[in-house]
TrEMBL record:
This is PQQ-dependent sugar dehydrogenase. InterPro entries: 6-blade_b-propeller_TolB-like, Glc/Sorbosone_DH, Quinoprot_gluc/sorb_DH_b-prop. Residues 27-43 have a biased composition (Low complexity). Residues 19-43 are annotated as: Disordered. Residues 1-23 form the signal peptide. It comes from the Bacteria. Residues 57-389 form the Glucose/Sorbosone dehydrogenase domain. Gene3D superfamilies: TolB, C-terminal domain (2.120.10.30). Keywords: Signal.
Length: 393
């Protein structure tokens, strides 16, 4: 394997290209009939320019590979790509896993291992089939090799699985984050539109998990004494947590899709129960009400929430210098909300700020990432989802 060349700052880019209650009646990740949120005023005047760099077929996640000129991009249908951010050359990675690309399922998140510059390891999530029509998310770790004009995955090994596999094609979540100390892998696991599993420590559905870097449960996890799968669990009571990120002060945050309304931004605290499906600031799609979060109910309430829904798809907490006014703030992609949102973070306090929904940002946003030079990158959702670069105006 050849040594990959470090990325040059400012390199030129090639333009172009649940508890008791009624089950949901449709997939809640991407309801096309939903309208954008009115919870925060939309801003058509942004302190950045938006450049269309490329387009992809249902892009789902991206990550910049440390110490290289490459970014890795997943497409929901099962393709893993690497893009040379200097030349614009795109390689399809051989050895990507077989996925069940159905509904909200398919190839999912990708992040680099803490020791990527030595090991070349990446973590990848995807949906695999089970018996019959069942399915479940998995996380794998393997080596990403880029040499001689080609790219491949080596020794990709599954290190975690959603248990049990169930029928349906929604609420997999499977977002990934590594703790700032580089010791732990955090995995979000949706409740698969089944409600009750979110409160059941006999399953890892509807949870956020803390694992070692090889996928084993951490001995000091809050429910470790109860054995598998409770020993994996860091927090419970989640519906469809599709974003997870650490702030510079070490606080762990997560975005979560609520039902009809009640989308959430949460501080993730060891052992806490976030209430789904017993409480929510939204309602069932049937119109049946769910008790709101309330002081003293025993559940962790969101720091901010959205009603009507925005369908938060991803979470990035900004740490760069290109936009110094936003250091430490959260950026959230919205699917049904068709916008990019900023939330001001101050310790564990969150305050809604801008919603950008004009031009190229006025569409379904799947992913938000920070580049190594501090620029912000956005992936649109869909069959011709564009890769966008945000630069200071």
């Amino acid at each position: 394997m050849r040594r990959l060349m470090p990325m040059l700052a400012g390199a030129a880019l090639v333009a172009g290209c649940s508890g008791p209650g009624p089950a949901p009646t449709r997939a809640t990740e991407a309801p096309s009939e939903s309208t954008p949120t009115s919870a925060t005023a939309s801003s058509d005047v942004a302190p950045f320019t938006v450049t269309e760099v490329a387009s992809y077929d249902e892009p789902w996640a991206m990550t910049f590979l440390p110490g290289t000129e490459y970014a890795a991009i997943t497409q929901r249908g099962g393709q893993l790509l690497v893009r040379d951010m200097s030349s614009g050359e795109v390689l399809t990675v051989d050895g990507a896993p077989e996925v069940k690309a159905e509904g909200q399922g398919g190839l999912g998140d990708i992040i680099a291992a803490p020791d990527f510059d030595q090991s070349g390891h990446i973590y990848l999530s995807w949906v695999e089939p089970g018996d019959g029509t069942s399915a479940g998310a998995v996380v794998g770790r393997g080596g990403l090799v880029i040499e001689d004009g080609a790219a491949r995955l080596e020794n990709l090994t599954v290190i975690w699985r959603q248990e049990p596999k169930v029928e349906g094609a929604g609420h997999f979540a499977h977002r990934l984050a590594v703790s700032p100390d580089g010791k732990y892998l955090f995995v979000t696991s949706g409740e698969r539109q089944k409600f009750d599993p979110a409160q059941d420590l006999g399953t890892n559905l509807g949870k956020i998990l803390r694992l070692t870097l090889d996928g084993t449960p951490v001995a000091a996890n809050p429910f470790a004494a109860q054995g598998y799968p409770a020993e994996e669990v860091w927090t419970l009571g989640h519906r469809n947590p599709l974003g997870i990120a650490f702030a510079p002060d070490g606080t762990l945050w997560s975005t979560e899709m609520g039902p009809k309304g009640g989308d959430e931004l949460n501080v993730i605290t060891e052992g806490a129960n976030y209430g789904w499906p017993k409480v929510s600031n939204g309602s069932h799609y049937s119109g049946e009400e769910i008790p709101d979060h309330a002081a003293g109910d025993g559940f962790e309430a969101p720091k901010v929430w959205w009603n009507p829904s925005i369908s938060p798809s991803s979470l990035m907490i900004y740490t760069g210098e290109v936009f110094p006014q936003w250091r430490g703030d959260a950026f959230i992609g919205a699917l049904s909300g068709q916008s990019l949102l900023r939330v001001d973070l101050d310790g564990t306090t969150a305050t809604k700020a801008e919603v950008w929904s004009a031009g190229a940002l006025g569409t379904r946003i799947r992913e938000v990432e920070q580049g190594p030079d501090g620029r912000i990158w956005v992936l649109q959702d869909g069959s011709e989802g564009k890769l966008l670069r945000l630069d200071p105006a």
